[in-house]
Amino acid sequence: MPKQSSSGTSTGNGAFEVTKVSNLNCIDLSSSDIQRSVSLLKQACLDCGFFYVINHGISEEFMEEVFDQSKRFFTLPLSEKMKLLRNEKHRGYTPLLDELLDPNNQVHGDYKEGYYIGVEVPVDDPEAEKPFYGPNVWPTTDILPGWRDTMEKYHQKALEAARSVARIIALALDLEIDFFDKPEMLGQPIATLRLLHYGGDISNPSVGIFGAGAHSDYGLITLLATDNVLGLQICKDKDAKPQVWEYVPPIKGAFIVNLGDMLERWSNCIFKSTLHRVLGNGQERYSIAYFVEPSHDCLVECLPTCKSEENPPKFPPIKCAAYLSQRYKDTHADLKLYKAERT
């Protein structure tokens, strides 16, 4: 693990990028001291938008099962995985280099592969017409028995954990505790599970090679489970020259939680959505991200507790579905490219 004062990487322009290890607040969801939880979370959201969550209701044994099932998928031959290529609803497999998160600094896409699983909606349900809703793309049971059951169970458990975190966020924003539980918010959310695999490449920021390029997440909050391989970095001040990147060490059994751009927008920039990236160090790395956003028709506009005459709203209102659709379009390869490769 890098030492706080002695490690670093060149940025490629003569500047020296100091690498540190971040010390994040830890929120215990089983704690009865709600005011302490609110205080710790609020401090984290004002400082860097990242924090740990423990005792979130998902056992370590089940988490290990989810990781094992994820590894089983990613070890399949590429030809089998490409049969499950993501569709227009962002369900299914995303190949190596498919996603380009930091086009100004990356020479290629991200050196990772992934798999999207969203809210399961039958194809004949009118709700399936909405972006990010519809049937998922599943491996067949003869190839990966039990895989779908495990992932659907995890999807539900992670959503409950996310709702618990959102209640503490509501209190930290001086809102009612159930503010985000409303049907138009997390009552009918756009919630997306994404399995991720980094194949052991070595990143080199000086030449634009990253496991995942620098970005902030699009939505409300993200819950990240990861193995014990170091790789995630955050930059608390994106405007600093040079940018200072800090590693976020994994904690066994904990989620790493971060705020998304939508919550920064909602809070009128009071809470921060922070740049983060992944650097590969030659070791394989697995992680599981769970992206939580409000419902399609939710109007994201400045919260009443986050504006005043001295601090008017900084952003116009926008519908959640329109906002997310554009962000995904901006960062993923056009599916026509894969169709062209097959012909």
From TrEMBL:
Belongs to the iron/ascorbate-dependent oxidoreductase family. Signal peptide: none annotated. InterPro entries: DIOX_N (IPR026992), IPNS-like_FE2OG_OXY (IPR044861), IPNS-like_sf (IPR027443), Oxoglu/Fe-dep_dioxygenase_dom (IPR005123). The lineage of its organism: Eukaryota, Viridiplantae, Streptophyta, Embryophyta, Tracheophyta. Residues 189-294 form the Fe2OG dioxygenase domain. This is 2-oxoglutarate-Fe(II) type oxidoreductase hxnY-like isoform X2. GO terms for molecular function: dioxygenase activity; metal ion binding. Keywords: Iron, Metal-binding, Oxidoreductase. PANTHER family: 2-OXOGLUTARATE (2OG) AND FE(II)-DEPENDENT OXYGENASE SUPERFAMILY PROTEIN, OXIDOREDUCTASE, 2OG-FE II OXYGENASE FAMILY PROTEIN.
